[in-house]
Description:
This protein has six helices and two strands. Helix 2 (29-45) crosses helix 3 (52-59), helix 2 (29-45) packs across helix 4 (63-75) and helix 3 (52-59) crosses helix 4 (63-75). By secondary structure, the protein is mainly α. The mean pLDDT is 89. Helix content is 66%, strand content 7%.
Amino acid sequence: MTDLGPGQVLFHFVRHWSRRSVAADTGGEQGRLVLVCEGVHALSLRETPATVNAIAQEVGIDQSGASRLIKSATIAGYLVMAASATDGRRREASLTSAGQVMLDQAHRWQEEVFAELTTNWSDKKRRDFQQAMTDLIERSYAMDA
């Protein structure tokens, strides 16, 4: 793998982690619920309304797939759909308190996995990696705009 350029390594990393299931969830349903809640959370951090189309774009699936995920997360009690405060014709998703608890648990698991993957890294190397990834994500959003 040493012959791969940095872009190839980045995309290999993304493919690798996008295929991994949550350890205790062999059916993948919990992972899909986390995915849609992560999408809603990410949109809210960017102050973007969490419409079905926005969620679909955020998680990289089509509108009908996003609609099904939102419905499943709503039935599970993680999301609620409501009319937009600015446009009553539009519906927006938001996390429920149960959804926030589930997302907090997922984030703790993510931090545990990162700590395990970087056991031999210095705190500086971890912070530098975090900053580099943050810079890449921000640049990616800017390229989309």
